[in-house]
Amino acid sequence: MPAEQAFEGWWLYVVETSDGKLYTGITTDVARRIEEHARGQRGARALRGKGPLSLRFCQAVGDRSQALRLECALKRLKRADKLQVVEGRRPLDSLL
């Protein structure tokens, strides 16, 4: 992700498990965090043993406070609404 290299703030991301479940998280380094999830390290017990994982969505969101607000808002959505955001049919900013 070349854009990620240039942005040093916080990212919101959505990972899909092998059984189709969506997991939402925030990080400052998406590639590192996805690798941690894939290896079963550091939190996210919900993802352990659920691989292979695929990154479905990531977007730079600014500071940690903004990232946490967006993460919480996205997690509250029903699956169909979350997929609209993931697929780009609904802007992330509309959640706040």
UniProtKB/TrEMBL annotation:
<dbReference type="InterPro" id="IPR035901">
    <property type="entry name" value="GIY-YIG_endonuc_sf"/>
</dbReference>
<dbReference type="InterPro" id="IPR050190">
    <property type="entry name" value="UPF0213_domain"/>
</dbReference>
<dbReference type="InterPro" id="IPR000305">
    <property type="entry name" value="GIY-YIG_endonuc"/>
</dbReference>
<feature type="domain" description="GIY-YIG">
    <location>
        <begin position="8"/>
        <end position="84"/>
    </location>
</feature>
<protein>
    <recommendedName>
        <fullName>GIY-YIG domain-containing protein</fullName>
    </recommendedName>
</protein>
<comment type="similarity">
    <text>Belongs to the UPF0213 family.</text>
</comment>
<dbReference type="Pfam" id="PF01541">
    <property type="entry name" value="GIY-YIG"/>
</dbReference>
